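Co-fold these.
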Amino acid sequence: MNPVLRTVLQRLGLGIATLFVVSIIISLTIEMLPGDFAKAILGQSATPETVAAFQREVGLDRSPVVRYVEWVGGIVRGDFGESYASAGSLAGHRRLVSEMIAPRLLNTLFLAGAAAMIAVPLSLFLGIMAALYRNSYFDRAVNVVSLTSISSPEFFLAYILIMFLAVKFPIFVSLASITPGMSLGDRLYAIMLPTLTLVLVIVAHMMRMTRAAIINLLASPYIEMSRLKGVKPLQIILRHALPNAWAPIANVIALNLAYLVVGVVVVEVVFTYPGIGQLMVDAVSKRDLPVVQGCALVFAATYILLNLLADVVTIVSNPRLLHPR
Amino acid sequence: MSEQLEKLKLAEKLVGRGKVSRRQFVQLAMAAGLTAATGELMFTKAARAEPKKGGSAKFGLAHGATTDSLDPAGYPDTGTQIPFAGAMSNNLTIVDADGNIHPDLAESFEPGKDAATWIFKIRNGVTFHNGKSVTPEDVIGSFQHHMGPDSKSAAKSLLADVTEIKADGKDKVVFTLGGANADFPYVASEYHIPIMPVVDGKADWQSGVRTGAYVYGEYEPGVRAHLTRNPNYYGTAWFDDVEFLTIADVTARTAALTAGQVHWISRADLKTLNLLKRDPNVNIDEVQGLGHYTFPMHVDAAPFDNADVRTALKYAVNRQDIVDKVFLGHATPGNDNPIAPLVKFAIDPEPKHTYDPEKAKFHLKKAGMENLKVDLSVADAAFNGAVDAAVLYQQHAKACGIDINVVREPNDGYWDNVWLKKAWCASYWGGRPTCDWMFTTTYAKGAAWNETNFAHPRFNELLVQGRAETDEKKRAAIYAEMQQLQHDEGGGLVLVFNNYVDASSKKLAHGKIAGNWEGDGFKIAERWWFA
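Predicted complex below.
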């Protein structure tokens, strides 16, 4: 069997097993959450009577095991369940978890995509250049700037960008509010500041890994050989070093892309961007457990898929793995 | 007043209605002996004062969650209260900026033989957004939405006393109550009880069809709501359309206002308020609310069962110091009367409870104690700053020979496990617009939320009397006595009344801001306009 196909299948199988374990962990953790949906929604005005009415309606009066089995059973059929927020609704006004997550996930993917489109080429370019001119002022400057930006908390970077690019010099907008009827150009303009923030946060990691992987290879004998035969330094890196450096770079990129999907809740809050991170935080604070479970599962799946992708790149970029004897 | 000045005054009124041009006005002003520049200034001011239609207003709200819905049984915070209860809907009655009750969707209301029945007459010719006329059935269905055993409404306990609602003719609704309640019209103004159309015998909240100033447009729970002006509204609405954005992060809210992306934000950041004040395009609006923060003591648990101990504790706290340090000046010190000054029949009981270690010691001695050691359970879940306030109180009380042990409780489950259970804790009360309502919910004997276990016979006797009394003077006397009782003998140590601190763009204009709820009594979209 083709090794790529075999790995993909193997990893997918493992991924599903992992998701299953994750689902158990999620459910257990949620059982341990103190508080209750009805009380979170009603606050001080929750009387024992109304709380009981809520619990009957959403089925919280049944045992955790029954609820878990029903939930997993639903997911296998593609049904993520129903938000507690639809308790009390008449038929036709139910709020499905999948319907709540889908638009938010798309928003998050849009922002992550925009950030990745800028950050990945930029960090590859900077990494290669830094390797090429290593220990030069350029190399040091790139390192210092990117390390500074990765070391600052995201909200701090975000506030600085808002202050200079939205308040003092109103070039961009600080509220990244996206409405259904917006054109692509308007959307990109609205999310410019969060995109820039995310770029600043993730560039350093990928840039330094690219630089390190290439410099590591530059010491190997075959690079020495090409240098002796008179190949230009840039050509050495692009044609000889980079193909062998893809595996670690792909892994770091996958890690950062996963972060862009699951870890940007702070940026979403600061720019009021309706992404999936905000949805999950909202759901946790209101104890809307089906939504929390759904989000957690989506996050886990994102990590597993992106790691799978990185593994495939590793195999494809390495002939010894691609054509095993 | 000279003839010229009188003319000028008249012209000022006409300017607002667009009847007098700038040039005419300035000429008049100069004839009256003013300079041209002053005339210009007066013109601009007069032109601003009179509302006019137009513009798209954007409001940045501090609340809103994805679990929110259009169902008025919920409406947990301003994320739903301001757009849906305030801008989109009407109640039978409404409370104005001075705390008085007026008919709203009702044209008039009157008590029956005694105050145990109430007759509301629906305003003539009012229609819902879909064109359907408002009928008594709609009113009945809207109230019943919150009643019955399966109701999960936050207004359920409020309407527990309603025994029957029935239609009388084409435009009258009669409410029968279990006992007399002269304040029932105030209950009808509660934001959970807007009037909705009835479809198939049930109140239809899902469609968002109501009667209010703005018509339901787009809504993404916890993100934004967009409404457009109701052209058939019986009241006034100035903006063409309004958008409400949930901006939970206070820095993001501030930035959105200063960058001009929204015109109004709720809950401005108190820590940086002075910086925001410097912005030439921003107004800070501060109004005293009905909400208050308390340290309730169980009057039936030692040592709080001794009235002198309670009085000593009331004198042992420096409320002004807490206002200055914890609330950065944006609160009003309480006087152990849970009725806010804005509420009708409110009094300011004497002697004022201000920080006085000597009096505290005196009362402690009267109770037969030299010093006192008590636990105070607090968490910031009760109100933001509760822990800080308690620690300051601890320091104030030291000088009075009282040792307060501040017990920090977890935020999660605070209302379940600490409040009503511990003999002394921190608590918060949102506004209740009448004396009766506040006392019935929190200080009446046997009330579910009687956080002080207060069961004073005279107090409860007065409570029932006041509810049935329709003579204003007698009611004033009854409520004055009750407030005095609360102040002297109650266990509710009222620390401070909260202020609503909002910020708005100078482009917006408004009348007197109501303090009964946030955002001009939730009615900001209806009451404000672009200058």
